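Hi R.,

Quick one: here's the CTP synthase sequence you asked about.
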Amino acid sequence: MKYVLVTGGVVSGLGKGVTASSIGVVLKACGLRITSIKIDPYLNTDAGTMSPFEHGEVFVLDDGGEVDLDLGNYERFLDIKLTRDNNITTGKIYQSVINKEREGEYLGKTVQVVPHITNAIQDWIERVAMVPVDGQEGPADVCVIELGGTIGDIESMPFIEALGQFSYRVGAGNFCLVHVSLVPVLNVVGEQKTKPTQHSVRGLRGLGLTPNMLACRSTKELEENVKEKLSQFCHVPAANIFTLYDVSNIWHIPLLLRDQKAHNAILKVLNLESVAQEPKLDEWVARATLYDTLQDEVRIAMVGKYTGLSDSYLSVLKALLHASVSCHKKLVVDWVASTDLEDSTASEAPDAYKAAWTLLKGADGVLVPGGFGDRGVKGKMMAAKYARENNVPYLGICLGMQLAVVEFARHVMKFPDADSTEFNPNTKTPCVIFMPEGSKTHMGGTMRLGSRRTFFKVTDCKSAKLYGDVNYVDERHRHRYEVNPDMVPAFENAGLQFVGKDETGQRMEIIEIPDHRFFVGVQFHPEFKSTPSKPSPPFVGLIAAACGQLDQVLQDSCNGHVVAAKHKLGDSFSTPLVHQNGHAQKQANGGVANGTCHANGNGSTHG
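And here's the predicted structure, written out as tokens:
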């Protein structure tokens, strides 16, 4: 097994995740099999209990693992299926060591960070790296490891020490370190400054790790004299210093690495030159070029409560992009804070109220994503009501589906007190109830998580056709509440169809209003399995309905044609237009694409 470690210096959010994924893409194009591991130094056991404002979205895997959003990047870039063990956290490592101590495995020994914690980290990496994730038998050829955070962070010190030991454990020719750093340009001087990278590499070397190559983030390509200076002071050959400069979309990043011969440098360090081939990235060239040429816009109103940080809905954005590109449309996302749609905002902040409703009414389609808590719930229901009454395409995911059901009960079935027991435990019309297997005392890992099967009970429905007229689909879930099965007959008599259910027939998975242009709700999270070559069917349905292509798409799906097959696209693009209260901005991806991700004026990246 060969290992490529990607670390970051100077500042966070440089795009380590995109860089690690792109390295994997280039090596895969050389004919090698790739797996990935993400190390997160925080003490949480997993990402499941963290607020999206803290760490972006929680990405859910097939096995129910709640992990860092970078694992979503890996899956989309590399077309692999990872497990919860591919995300290592300080909490997991310490928990495993403490469990062993309690079981007497270290009997008589003083349990310490070195060697017990560091050995546990190394053993975990070796064990997980051997697990195939690409559907083939046997281990992969190369494991790409991303160390989260920035060199110098106190919480990452045990991992730095462990990885230093690990480089000696696996031996020369089996370990390659790529350090991602920042080369800023001061506006006053206009000169690329190398000092931050010099200090970062000095700190890395002082901790026992020596970089084999540098991936330098900058606004423009590095000048030759800058490369020579970095080479001299960082002790890295100039041929091993690459520029990841700002580009129009992140599909260009693997191409940048290929054009600068990064694969040759990595293959040389790993002694793989004799078994690898020249990378074939024709598809990636086509992807990057096609996306840059899209002109016709489709506007989707994203109604949620985490609109201040687009990383909170990262996979939803990617799925929208995949679907919009498959329909040859340029995606424009109008961020609508659900609280701004509520009546209370009309008196407290009339300008925000007016702006929110203007965005909603100007959209071609409405999407209400998942979420937790009662803030903004009324606004989400108002968005669902607007879409239902005005025949505007609507997609509700998880909570978005549940609130569409509650809204239908209140305004169509005339149950004014209808609600979810999540928000009103004493409601007399509980449309959405707590699942019996859930826990109300322990939050982490106690939801209905991971891949579950949904069976289509109505074959002549839009959802079944979008999925290709199959009998069932496997999608990933993350929820504690579900539609009350006792109310299903009343809903269906009123015109709301439950077209998809679980194997017992008691758990509602997909809703539709048959005579609506496109009104669909799903209990699962289809965004987690979406890729541009296989865009998520519910998202394709939303985009197609929003731009008048739904009938053709349904016909193609029924005839066995995959919508995205026309344009073989392989993952997420970086520059949808994002509007927040009417202001158009570019959304970047991972700090690599041109511009910075903004919403409510707060910049963010997800590298």
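The first helix runs from residue 16 to 29.

Cheers,
M.
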